[in-house]
């Protein structure tokens, strides 16, 4: 109790100190509220509700649309897993853009949570000789295969270990999320991620108003701000409601599979038990929950 | 005289030594406080992790068997019997000039197979298994599965082909023919979406 | 006089000086204004104004940070030889070493602040108020040890200067204890900074156990190089007395450090090139370039060549004991380590990136301006601190202050 009080008064002092800086930039009390907001994981249920209500109002003012901001927690007995059929993927990049639209990624500067790498069949999986900018008339190209890379949702994530402020963590259902209001933007996680899955808002993100997806999760696809890191969350706003991620739904060749690793009847478990499966950079012991397999 | 001096010196030494642990103790207390504060943070987060929803909320929706969408038939072509009832059935394998749209693209083990390997000679609105069993067009996957048994098995568990809907509830399957043209099943190459913009330096 | 009055009474020192001093201040001020303009743009538009991108997400700023941590570490470690060889002005060496360390730490923290996307959220890192990720994040450790190191050095320097100022003996026990704590802390700050990179398996270029030893060795080359020149200047312009032998001993110790640094680097290179795993790629990019991307090659070879020349100049007794060649060597080794830490350490860690893509990075004008801002602030602080120290130690600076009773009567009146 006492600690709480001194803590609050300290925060107030901090507020006063920061107040001058904020006043200079012409911001209002809202900015102060944002500045003082605590780490998401230390908030009470009531505080979360309050923040979400004010966020919905803020988005309404900013984008002229009604947003549904969810903060639905993980469900017991669920551990999300993903599998991608390398023998099927044709490198059409439909997943890349479905992801951009679903998750309100910045169009300029451009942020893509999924990178599709073109590789030579002759060389196998070889990042050094891969190409992300391939652009032929038609895909797949002769002698090539395609390896889409996004967050591998590691069981042993390096990115959360290195974060100096605990702004990113693994949820009980295995999704690694970022608290955009807590991230200081040091980009240590980007240095630590072996899969290039984390992306930084180098400038204020821009999303056309009519393309804004208003169905958002607090830890996922809600509009981001300049100077914070973001990443794939398996479409947390969809999968926590039981739906498939957007990339799974859009894939024209059905190469993308998703499900609950703890459910022995799930597609994902079938793949792990019956197919030849690999994970990227196994030697780093990150233990991804994103598996690549050969369906044929 | 000397002895007393010595004694005093020793005393000083002793008292000085005693002061050091006191400082150590002080810094130890500071460290302890830091440690406590840090543990307090940890405890708060642990409480957060306990906020997960109970399992039954997600599994209450019963997983449903696959719901198959109507097969994608070319418009105006079905029922086949509309034309074929007036024609004499001819089981001899031959070039068909009537079904140009199929023969021109046909590429499905072309050497060994033709129409009547899958379509029934008499009942034109049905497909036909090798056993002679007749099959509706909405069950065509069984026909495909005659040869592609492994694919059918994978498809049934949702590994081959595409599913949309709920990952733990109602799922929406597609038939083989939704993605593969039965007469030319190999995938057509497609135009890729634009590549990511190159990361550019600001000046 | 109370400690609280100390700052006020030494403030006038800063306004005393010849034309050269004011010209230097003006120069720093101009750079500062130019740099601040750049940083303001970065604050306004975001880090997009730098040339860092997702592929190369850390670069020039973090390189400078690393370099300065090395300077801070080495400056204090020089106390060891001063103590062992019993150089006479040990107190002065401690003071100037720690002053340099203080400025270097301030600048290195400055580089972290300009590098992060949300500098206002810096408080999230504080334990208790924020949620510091201690002990698992190396950045938290680094922040923690840097702050502690800064505090220790500040206490020692302020205490020493204050005591000399009021002509009283300093608290030997306190100073000795703190100096002996600050020496392992100096090793710690640079080791932890090395661990920051070393701990990341995703970046094979850094993921080598030799990284921390190489850091320390290189720091022991660059840090004393500054002090070497500073001591000569002090000797020339003040009452500071240091024998030629002491300076040559510093140079000799630097040779050992350079040799160890060279040896570690060769060991690293041998392992990488002989085993020729995929990890070789980053060294290739640094030393020879990949394909047409040879942007770092001039930097890396410049650093190597400058380092080698400095090594020879310091190694040969004749050139070591000649102050012209010695000073050339000091500048060369300083520049060599600066290029190595600023450019050749961070950027190849990210090029090619983890997915094998090459994004060619060189610092943008905004980055150079922001760095200039930090360096000019650092130099200004260093100038002020050195000026105060010189005035107090060598020029017997004192203020005519009223006696306590007089003060009381004044207040009453």
UniProtKB/TrEMBL annotation, chain A:
Pfam families xrefs: Fer4_11 (PF13247)
Disulfide bond keyword on record: no
Keywords: 4Fe-4S, Iron, Iron-sulfur, Metal-binding
Iron keyword on record: yes
Residue ranges the record marks as coiled coil: none
Domain 4Fe-4S ferredoxin-type: 80-109, 174-203
A GO MF label: 4 iron, 4 sulfur cluster binding
Stored PANTHER family: PROTEIN NRFC, PROTEIN NRFC HOMOLOG
Protein name, UniProt field: Molybdopterin-containing oxidoreductase family iron-sulfur binding subunit
Species this protein is from: Mangrovibacterium diazotrophicum
Automatic annotation (TrEMBL), chain B:
Annotated SUPFAM superfamilies: Multiheme cytochromes
InterPro entries, sorted: Multihaem_cyt_sf
This protein's UniProt keywords: Membrane, Transmembrane, Transmembrane helix
Transmembrane segments: 24-43
Protein's name according to its UniProt entry: Uncharacterized protein
Organism: Mangrovibacterium diazotrophicum
Automatic annotation (TrEMBL), chain C:
Subcellular location: Cell membrane
Highest taxon of source: Bacteria
Pfam families (UniProt xref): NrfD
Membrane topology designation: Multi-pass membrane protein
Record field: transmembrane: 21-40, 60-86, 93-114, 143-162, 174-195, 215-234, 246-264, 296-316, 328-351, 371-394
GO cellular component: plasma membrane
Keyword Zinc: no
Keywords: Cell membrane, Membrane, Transmembrane, Transmembrane helix
Keyword check for Iron: no
Protein name: Molybdopterin-containing oxidoreductase family membrane subunit
Organism: Mangrovibacterium diazotrophicum
Lineage: Bacteria, Pseudomonadati, Bacteroidota, Bacteroidia, Marinilabiliales
């Amino acid at each position: 109790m006492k600690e709480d009080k001194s803590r609050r008064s300290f925060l107030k002092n901090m507020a006063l100190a920061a107040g001058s800086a904020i006043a200079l930039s012409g911001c209002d009390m809202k900015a102060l509220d944002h500045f003082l907001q605590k780490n998401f994981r230390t908030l009470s249920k009531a505080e979360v509700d309050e923040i979400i209500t004010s966020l919905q109002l803020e988005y309404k003012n900013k984008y002229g649309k009604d947003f549904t901001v969810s903060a639905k927690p993980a469900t017991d007995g669920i551990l999300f897993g993903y599998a991608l059929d390398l023998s099927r993927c044709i490198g059409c990049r439909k997943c890349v853009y479905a992801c951009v639209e679903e998750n309100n990624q910045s169009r300029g500067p451009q942020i893509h949570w999924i990178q599709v790498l073109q590789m030579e069949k002759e060389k196998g999986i070889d990042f050094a000789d891969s190409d992300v900018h391939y652009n032929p008339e038609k895909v797949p190209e002769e002698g090539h295969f395609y390896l889409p890379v996004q967050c591998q949702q590691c069981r042993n994530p390096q990115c959360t270990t290195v974060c100096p402020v605990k702004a990113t963590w693994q949820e009980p259902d295995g999704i690694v999320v970022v608290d955009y209001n807590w991230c200081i933007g040091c980009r240590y996680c980007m240095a630590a991620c072996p899969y290039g899955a984390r992306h930084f808002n180098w400038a204020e993100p821009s999303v056309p108003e009519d393309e804004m997806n208003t169905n958002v999760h607090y830890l996922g696809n809600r509009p981001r701000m300049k100077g914070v890191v973001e990443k794939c969350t398996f479409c947390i706003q969809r999968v926590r409601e039981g739906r498939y991620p957007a990339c799974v739904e859009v894939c024209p060749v059905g190469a993308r599979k998703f499900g609950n690793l703890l459910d022995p009847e799930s597609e994902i478990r079938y793949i792990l038990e019956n197919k030849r499966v690999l994970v990227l950079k196994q030697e780093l012991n990150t233990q991804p929950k994103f598996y690549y397999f050969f369906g044929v | 005289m000397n002895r007393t001096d010595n004694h005093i010196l020793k005393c000083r030494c002793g008292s000085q030594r005693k002061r050091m642990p006191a400082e150590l103790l002080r810094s130890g207390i500071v460290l302890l406080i830091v440690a406590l504060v840090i543990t307090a943070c940890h405890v708060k987060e642990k409480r957060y992790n306990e906020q997960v929803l109970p399992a039954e909320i997600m599994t209450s929706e019963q997983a449903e068997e696959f719901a198959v969408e109507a097969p994608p038939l070319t418009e105006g072509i079905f029922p086949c019997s509309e034309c074929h009832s007036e024609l004499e059935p001819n089981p001899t394998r031959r070039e068909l000039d009537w079904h140009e749209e199929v023969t021109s693209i046909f590429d499905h083990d072309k050497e060994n197979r033709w129409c009547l390997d899958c379509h029934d000679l008499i009942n034109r609105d049905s497909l036909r298994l090798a056993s002679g069993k007749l099959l509706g067009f909405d069950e065509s996957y069984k026909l495909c599965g005659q040869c592609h048994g492994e694919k059918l098995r994978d498809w049934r568990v949702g590994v081959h082909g595409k599913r949309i809907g709920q990952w733990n509830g109602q799922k929406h399957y597609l038939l083989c023919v939704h993605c593969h043209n039965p007469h030319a099943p190999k995938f057509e190459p497609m135009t890729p979406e634009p590549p990511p913009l190159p990361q550019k330096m600001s000046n | 006089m109370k400690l609280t009055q100390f700052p006020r009474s030494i403030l006038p020192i800063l306004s005393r000086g010849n034309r050269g001093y004011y010209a230097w201040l003006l120069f720093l001020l101009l750079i500062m204004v130019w740099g601040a303009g750049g940083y303001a743009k970065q604050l306004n538009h975001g880090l997009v104004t730098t040339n860092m991108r997702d592929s190369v997400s850390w670069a020039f700023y973090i390189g400078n940070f690393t370099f300065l941590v090395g300077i801070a570490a080495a400056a204090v470690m020089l106390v060891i030889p001063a103590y062992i060889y019993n150089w006479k002005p040990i107190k002065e060496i401690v003071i100037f070493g720690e002053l340099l360390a203080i400025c270097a730490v301030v600048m290195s923290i400055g580089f972290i602040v300009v590098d992060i996307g949300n500098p206002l959220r810096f408080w999230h890192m504080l334990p208790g108020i924020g949620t510091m990720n201690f002990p698992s994040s190396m950045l938290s450790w680094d922040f923690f040890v840097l702050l502690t190191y800064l505090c220790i050095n500040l206490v020692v320097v302020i205490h020493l200067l204050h005591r000399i100022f009021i002509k009283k003996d300093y608290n030997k026990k306190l100073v000795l204890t703190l100096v002996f704590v600050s020496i392992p802390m100096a090793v710690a700050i640079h080791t932890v900074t090395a661990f920051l990179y070393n701990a990341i398996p995703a970046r094979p270029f850094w993921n080598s156990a030799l990284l921390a030893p190489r850091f320390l060795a290189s720091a022991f080359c660059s840090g004393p190089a500054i002090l070497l020149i500073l001591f000569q200047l002090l000797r020339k312009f003040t009452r500071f007395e240091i024998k030629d032998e002491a300076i040559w001993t510093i140079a000799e110790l630097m040779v050992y450090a350079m040799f160890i640094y060279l040896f570690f680097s060769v060991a690293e290179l041998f392992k990488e090139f002989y085993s020729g795993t995929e990890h070789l790629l980053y060294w290739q990019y640094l030393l020879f370039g990949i394909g047409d991307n040879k942007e770092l090659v001039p930097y890396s070879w410049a650093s190597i060549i400058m380092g080698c020349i400095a090594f020879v100049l310091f190694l040969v007794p004749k050139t070591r004991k000649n102050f012209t060649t010695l000073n050339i060597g000091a500048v060369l080794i300083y520049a060599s380590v600066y290029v190595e830490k600023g450019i050749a350490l961070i950027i190849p860690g990210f090029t090619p990136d983890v997915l094998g893509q090459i994004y060619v990075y060189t610092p943008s004008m905004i980055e150079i301006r922001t760095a200039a801002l930090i360096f000019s602030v650092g130099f200004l602080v260093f100038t002020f601190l050195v000026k105060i120290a010189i005035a107090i130690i060598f020029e017997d600076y004192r203020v005519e202050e009223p006696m306590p009773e007089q003060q009381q009567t004044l207040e009453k009146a």
